[in-house]
Amino acid sequence: MAAAGARVVHRGGCHCGAVRFDVEAPARPTVLECNCSICRMTGFLHLIVPAARFRLLAGGESLVEYRFNTGVARHLFCRRCGVKSFYVPRSHPDGYDVNLRCLDAATLTGWDVEAFDDGDRAAATAAWAHLTR
Where would I find the beta strands (DSSP E) of 46-120? Predict the structure, then answer.
């Protein structure tokens, strides 16, 4: 059993299994729930990590990209099942944002949810800037 706060390797992917990845994060991570339109509509729970702690294992050719508003965030969806299991967020363009709901349950011991207020994006981004360090 990993010590509290110690990182473990979680596996995850999309619904059809075409996209698979590893992410290194605590066994009980703190995730963010954003109230912006796309996150609210899709139920995304944000597990943000530095790029070095994310590894795409399969399915790069199955990913399609969607950008809107500022065009900074790279929303990546499986072209077969439509699931966005991870993306490159506008708030942390130097990292990856994994949907907790797309992780295999085997390595999770639970999670804590914190708010990310898109209505005050600058303050929310500053408060969570440490996530990609």
Answer: 46-50, 54-58, 63-66, 74-78, 86-88, 95-99, 112-116
pLDDT in tens, 81-114: 999 999 998 888 899 999 999 999 999 999 999 9
Give this prediction's pTM. Answer: 0.86
CATH code given to domain 9-132 = 2.170.150.70
Token digits of residue 118: 């898109």
Rounded Cα distance, 121 and 36, in Å: 10
Query: Which residue has better confidence, 39 or 83?
Result: 83
Write out the H or E segment, with its range, that includes residue 30.
strand 30-34
Domain regions of the chain by residue span: 9-132
For tokens 């990590």, the residue is 49
pLDDT at 12 over 70: yes
* Residue in the structure block whose two tokens are 């994060």: 25
Task: Provide the pLDDT confidence category of residue 120 given band limits of 50, 70 and 90.
Answer: confident
List, as one string, the DSSP characters of 4-28.
TT-EEEEEEE-SSSS-EEEEEEESS
Tell me the one-letter amino acid at 97.
D
